């Protein structure tokens, strides 16, 4: 609602008007603090809370929660309300004959906006900023959902963030800045995207160990560039595979970009190469074995 007016009158948002128009129902509102005018919905909500929300159920995500709610509603179809001749499910079947058919297409619930990417590689969504791997000055579409904010360009989703309900926050994904950081490697160590990855447990200790080893062998700038190139490869192949390759290289004592890249790209089992084998020859060319 945009504004609560006198009595049951409301100034509705354009999005809500489109929503109820699509599903073809009329909206009726009761005066503030007079829930008793809603009829039986308040008592039904109380019944559902007492019988299905006590104790409060746990769910991994919204999909699992919705499945739980649907199961609870199906269970209530067998309930017999006092004073009614039929159970809830039977009464609903009779009522369905008088309802309008559902539209053939669903309704997009996401709120859309069209911000411009700023010089920091972010788009402003309501009161927060989200990173996007798009050139500064480019207009993009942002879809705000209950749990996520998505950045779309040319019909493709280029970034997806968990939605932040705080104010004035920066939600940054390190992989959106890898190309820039490769040109300016000195900015990686103190960057906000890296700090957020650490907070989210997306930067394991093995990455720091490899990074330090690369800088000792190649120098600070070149060692950081090599680490960034591995992160770019992990973006393409999967960060779980990158972490496994880094930890395998550490187990073999091979602190080198070429070794990690080899382990990440090979599809064979990651076993220490035997002397005289093709694997050993490849590692020797990389300078990993004398």
Structure description:
With 290 residues, the chain is an alpha+beta fold. It folds into 4 domains: 1-35, no CATH class; 39-100, no CATH class; 111-171, no CATH class; 188-285, no CATH class. 42% of the residues lie in helices and 12% in strands. It is built from 11 helices and 9 strands. The chain has helices at 14-23, 41-52, 62-76, 88-96, 178-183, 192-199, 205-218, 220-237, 239-252, 257-265, 278-285; strands spanning 3-4, 10-11, 111-113, 122-125, 128-131, 141-144, 148-153, 156-162, 170-171. The strands form 3 sheets. It has a 4-stranded antiparallel beta sheet, with no helix packed on it. α7 (205-218) packs across α8 and α8 crosses α9. It is elongated. The model is unreliable at 276-282 (pLDDT under 50).
Which tags fit this structure?
single chain; 290 residues; alpha+beta; 4 domains; 3-stranded mixed sheet; 12% strand; elongated
Query: How many structural domains?
Result: 4
Average pLDDT number: 89
Radius of gyration: 28 Å
Q: Helix share of residues? A: 40-55%
The poorly predicted ranges are 276-282
**Strand pairing plus helix content: what structural class?**
alpha+beta
* SSE ordering: EEHHHHEEEEEEEHHHHHHH
Reported for the largest beta sheet, the result is: 4 strands, antiparallel
Biggest sheet: strand arrangement:
3-6-7-8
Outline: elongated
Beta strand %: 5-15%
Distance between the termini: 72 Å
Q: Number of DSSP helices?
A: 11
Number of strands: 9
């Amino acid at each position: 609602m945009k504004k609560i007016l006198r009595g049951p009158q409301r100034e509705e948002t354009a999005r809500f008007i489109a929503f109820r128009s699509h599903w073809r129902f009329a909206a009726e509102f009761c005066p503030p603090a007079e829930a008793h005018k809603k009829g039986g919905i308040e008592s039904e909500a109380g019944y559902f809370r007492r019988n299905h929300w006590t104790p409060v159920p746990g769910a991994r995500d919204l999909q699992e929660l919705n499945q739980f709610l649907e199961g609870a509603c199906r269970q209530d179809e067998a309930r017999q309300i006092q004073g009614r001749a039929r159970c809830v499910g039977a009464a609903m079947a009779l009522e369905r004959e008088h309802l309008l058919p559902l539209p053939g297409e669903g309704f997009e619930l996401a709120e859309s906006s069209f911000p411009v990417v700023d010089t920091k590689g972010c788009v402003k969504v309501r009161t927060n900023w989200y990173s996007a791997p798009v050139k500064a000055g480019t207009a993009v579409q942002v879809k705000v959902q209950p749990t996520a904010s998505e950045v779309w360009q040319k019909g493709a989703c280029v970034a997806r963030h968990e939605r932040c309900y705080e104010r004035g926050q920066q939600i940054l994904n390190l992989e959106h800045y890898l190309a820039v950081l490769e040109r300016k490697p000195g900015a990686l160590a103190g960057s906000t995207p890296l700090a957020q990855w650490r907070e989210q447990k997306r930067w394991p200790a093995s990455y720091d160990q490899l990074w330090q080893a690369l800088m000792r062998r190649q120098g600070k700038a070149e060692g950081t560039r090599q680490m960034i190139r591995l992160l770019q490869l992990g973006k393409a192949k999967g960060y779980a595979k990158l972490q496994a390759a880094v930890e395998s290289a550490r187990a073999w004592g091979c602190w080198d970009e070429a070794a990690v890249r080899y382990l990440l790209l090979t599809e064979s089992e990651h076993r220490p190469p035997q002397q005289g084998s093709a694997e050993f020859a490849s590692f020797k060319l990389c300078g990993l074995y004398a």
